[in-house]
Amino acid sequence: MADTPWALQVRGLKKSYGSAVALAGADFELGQCEIHALLGENGAGKSTLIKVLAGLLRPDEGEIRVSGRDWPTVATPRDAALFGLRFVHQDLGLVDAMSVLDNVAIETGYVTRKGGLIDFPATSRAVSERLRALGSDIDPCRLVGDLSQAEKVITAIARALAGQARIIVLDEVTASLPAPVATRLHGVIRRTREQGVSVVFVTHRIEEIFGLCDRATVFADGCRVASAALDQVDHAQIVRWIVGRDVQHRAKPVVSMARAACVQLRGLLGKGLGSPLDFEVGCGEVLGITGLVGSGYEAAAHWLAGVGKPEAGSFMLDGQVLPLGDAGALRVHGYQVISGERAASVFPGLTVRENIFALAKHGRAGSISAERRRCAELIRRFGIQPAECGELEIGMLSGGNQQKVLFARALESTPRALLMIDPTAGVDIGARAELYDLLRRETARGMAVILASSDFEEIESLADRALVLANGSPVALLEGAALTQSRLVYEALKPVDAQRTSAQADDKEIPR
């Protein structure tokens, strides 16, 4: 490659796993001090490219240059670090039980006194300076487990900027944040650029790249299909490049509120909920439970998932009382859970097939050959890629395809009720539309769905009614024409006194 002003150049990168092609001659360029969006459907090759740049995978062919320097033939994570590449992934890799100071300093190094003893006051000042450079005043002494998700992302970025960082890859770091919080985080990313660092920003939230990123590159089938300055293209063009077609947004079917209640919850109370929570979900209905991060919707989802026993509350499915706090008993009675937190949901080290049948209601699906046949059917039904992945370790799949495996596992048993917690975090726009269609088909046969999510676009797209929480309490119940993104944002953000007034009005006007 000839010398260029690029911070990063990738040419003709190829990587295959047997007959499965992950990268098919991929090209990518990142400018100096540029914020560059890397987009594409799950399985498009983005994750493989990032793993190559991190020194975790060795490409079959191709050339890489970083600031004009040739990439080692056999690169390691240490080489990537020496070249100034830093990575912040969706799971962030932080230790909740440690302080912000320790999480950052364990990577950047502690300030020491003579004799090698750690100078904690000096280290705290150094960490504070890193955080202030990103526009944050997080106390370095706080435990990471006590931080909001946005504060955790800022901490991870501060840690990543250790040493001579030249390029930082932010891989789906805003996936678990509601849109208003993600937007506030964009200022931190811009300050990263101001420090002379080039940024690769990987996201499935297309709307957030406009106004943040300078350019975008779209991958499909393991190679680049388009690259453009974002002031020259619109949202619709980006979507067409990603999915190869216009995505049709189908109208939600009208749900009759006269349908019998499938799920009934009364008096749910536990840590994170400031007042008892009550609701019903009709057969064939999708009820959204939403709010900003920290509003209480996550706490409600925690208890509804059967993780730990709440302080109070009764749960009924088809008229039968089921024990909250016993996830196994809930599953046996036809209640399944899908979470966007893949690290806590998949069984690493097991194959796709083993993951699908690991929690089967009646045990394994008979013989191994029977499991393989059923697994192949589910792979086709849910569009999991690569198509012949049944015997692949699940960690070899992209995050979005792992999420499709979780959908297959939950829906394989035709449950009566389904709880979804941020279910499409990290899932691309095309796959999202496919999963939405599949869920509508499932609800059409009478399955009740509880959708716990801070993604207001997702709530508007899927939910028939939406219960908005703030400060640990329900503040609004929306349906019909009132269930819009703008109204959801308004209800989640308005002052507490106004929320109480709205909740009282909703109690009178909206049937439960």
Tell me what portion of residues adopts beta-strand conformation.
15-25%
Number of helices: 16
Please estimate the helix content.
25-40%
- Rounded mean pLDDT is 82
Strand order of the largest sheet: 6-7-8-3-9-10
| Biggest β-sheet strands, sense, barrel | 6 strands, mixed
- Overall geometry comes to globular
- Give start-end ranges of low-pLDDT stretches: 495-512
Distance between the termini: 65 Å
Rg (CA only): 24 Å
Q: Using DSSP, what is the number of strands?
A: 20
Helix/strand class? alpha/beta
Short account of what is shown:
The protein is an alpha/beta fold and 512 residues long. The chain has helices at residues 46-53, 77-82, 100-108, 120-133, 149-160, 179-194, 235-243, 297-304, 327-332, 352-357, 368-382, 399-411, 429-444, 456-462, 485-493, 496-509, and strands at 8-17, 20-30, 35-40, 61-66, 69-70, 85-88, 167-171, 198-202, 215-220, 223-229, 261-269, 277-282, 286-290, 312-317, 320-322, 335-339, 417-421, 448-452, 465-470, 473-479. It is globular.
Question: What does this entry look like structurally?
Answer:
This protein is α/β, with parallel strands linked by helices and 512 residues long. Helix content is 33%, strand content 23%. The protein contains 16 helices and 20 strands. It has a six-stranded mixed beta sheet with strand order 6-7-8-3-9-10, sandwiched between helices. Strand 4 (61-66) and strand 5 (69-70) form a beta hairpin. The longest helix has 16 residues, at 179-194. It is globular and about 65 Å long. The model is unreliable at 495-512 (pLDDT under 50).
